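Subject: Sanity check before I submit

Could someone independently write out the structure tokens for this chain? I want to compare against mine line by line before I put it in a report. The sequence has 240 residues.
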Amino acid sequence: MKKIFLISTALLLNQSILADVAQTSSAQQAAELTRDSAQWRIAPRIRIQPCDLENQNRKLDLQITANPQGKVTDVKVLESTGVDHLDQKIIKTVYTSRFRPTGETFTVSQAFALNFTGQPTASCRPVKQQNTCVYLFETKILGEQILKHKTPFQYKEVPKFFIHKDELKGESREIHFSFKLSNKDQISNIKINKSSGLNHLDQQVISALSTTRITSDKKWWQFYKVTHQDQIVFDLNKCP
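---
Independent answer below. Compare away.
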């Protein structure tokens, strides 16, 4: 019978929590944040299978940056588990988690201790490696901006976003989206006008857009929000 382990991080700083385990435990996890004022509002919850650990203890140290509203905007690996797909599984979950608002951008470190306590087994199937070709947030407007063409708005930074070719499920994908920008460059009302057909891909684009910085030329009398549009194409033929 396959054993699946649900990993929860600590909800408070300087507080450790063991794994909530379905069936019999063979993995334990302790998490600790280093910044006293930061607390998880929606803590990472990760499903770990015994084979993910490959029969030994694993540890992952992450450096996590969040915006004043508590949304995770950047994750860096300080110490890898040594298993790439396990690192990526945890990192993706961290991006979907959220801190309590602090009113300022902050960076904390988060340690995941994954302890294998079961019997070693050779029955685990090898994890299929994802295609190394990845897609970034290369939109139509961003492309014109890089070429120094006049655009209705400008990305002040490239949104933090990447997906593997395998995530396209064998088809090229296209997403059209819109958003509103206030006179103080606040982004709101992000909408998918043309879906990729994959909900997780649409949501990744929305998440990347909501955490980036965008500006536009404005009139001094402009007090209302302006709607802008952009589109991104994930061409399957781009990756061999």
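---
OP: Matches mine. For the report I'm noting this point. The first strand starts at residue 5 and ends at 8.
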